[in-house]
Specification:
Length: about 625
Amino acid sequence: MKTYLRLIDFAKPLGGFIAPYLILTTLASIFSLANFAMLMPLLDILFGNIDSSTIPAHPLTLDDFELSTSFIKNYGYQEFGRIIEQQGPLTALLALCSITISASIFANIFRYMARRMAERLKGKTIANIRQAMYDKVLSLDIGFFNNQRRGDIVSRSTNDIFAVEASITQSLTTFVREPINLIVFFWALFSMSPQLTLFTLALIPVSGGGISFIAKKLKKHSKDVQSISSSLVSILDETIGGMRVIKAFNAEGFVNGKYQEENDKYMNSFTKEANRRELASPFSEVMGVTFVAVLLYYGGKLVLDESSSAPLEASQFIGYIVLFTQVLNPAKAISNTIGVIQRGLAAGERLLEFMEVEPAIKDSEPLKELTEFKGSIEFKNVHFAYGDNKVLKGINLSIEKGKTVALVGPSGGGKSTIADLIPRFYDVTEGEILIDGVNIKEYSLDSLRRVMGVVTQESILFHDSIFNNIAFGANNASKDNVMQAAKIANAHEFIEKSEDGYNTVIGERGTKLSGGQRQRLSIARAVFKNPPILILDEATSALDTESEKLVQDAITHLMKNRTSLVIAHRLSTIQDADEIIVIKDGGVVERGTHNALMQHDDGVYKKLQDLQSIS
């Protein structure tokens, strides 16, 4: 119940829905009742049971109105009796049929309006859940996504949301609409025969107990289905992303086997869930038919037994049976909805579990705004670990404004981690990082990252136009500024030659472009942002010689008048850096200019330089 109440929050505010929906549903139920209530006078007219004797000695008027079936029945029979007496039974039958059609039209108009409101609620609910999920995704730190399968997050944002949406909206509409229908129809049934109605009420708990048992079993299997479905999406996502490797290693059979294994698990869990879900409908159907059969026998006794204390007329009994069958529909709808709710709760628990994840990197109060970079970036005894794996061990370094500092060293030494700590993609586990003498944790994340531009080895581009990729994150960017950034990044020429110029859509992750072109767009994006602090993480290491020259030239333009931290794989690109820091095994082992470091014959930097010279 706690999970359900939390999920209901996504449908709020409900004030503008419940009251109008309640009114429309009540009106639809009343006109539906009126429609079925016409059956009794219809039968009596057909069998000639309405004549002048049905007209009361003291005629009823609307001033005598009372909310009871006896008044409505007596008043109706009085009016039909008059019509038969004055104009004949065919005219009365025509009037009765006209009233029936009118009641049906009004009932369905109100029902349609109520369903429109329900669909609007449904759309709003799913939009709210999706937005909440997306907001949560954006709020989480990069470290979280390194430990999660992307397909699992996608599955929660699609399959689980649809299950929850169906659960919330169907339950809200069913538990508002069907109780009203039950109240209206049972009021009519009680008015017609209290004895028979009390008898039927005694049978209802038998059906409710069986449906409750089925619903409890359903939740467990629903949770298994959602979990395995998430795994299938993850495998598919990995397959699409790694298709080049799969085909290169002839691994189609291997990955297909993994997928088929999970798919078989899904089929088995889905079948178990479906078996129990579908059991609810035939169970309620059988119980409904059983009720009607028992009702026919018991009610038939009341009709045939003239000595009964509460006898029924034949037309009344037939009308009662018809009305009772209408009671079965809302009862069946409620039982089916219980199953849907159980499935939605299983998906809802997975959604709420994700939404409860607290970001490891977040703003702390009180916040300061970093409006301008004035002095330096300083690492003071910085330690960092991924879980139990210690990566950085007591890093001390300073990057003065306007200077270029390069990080070099063997792979796995911690260079990229140092770069990730400055914009707080991760937080230090010990020590502190200062910008202009203030711990970066005291700055708001937004203002901290606003003064930084990042260009990584892997060009992260989006399935959008070249223009929007360069102006990423900016609203109302001017074409002149975008073009200027592209020219500085040596990208303008190839952009102009593209099919639609700056409006060319580059495909997912920029797959329609070459590696060098993608990297130059990444640099153009950094140029457009115009940040005072620049972080370059092996921005040219994955390029061919020609592309590297163009990209390196673009980087040189980009670094002018900026404070830069450069992680270099090819040492030839950082020889002019103001300071080169050699990182090995999580610590600083050498530092100095290129010329100074080359003087150390046994130094790590010189050995790396010699190895690249040989290659």
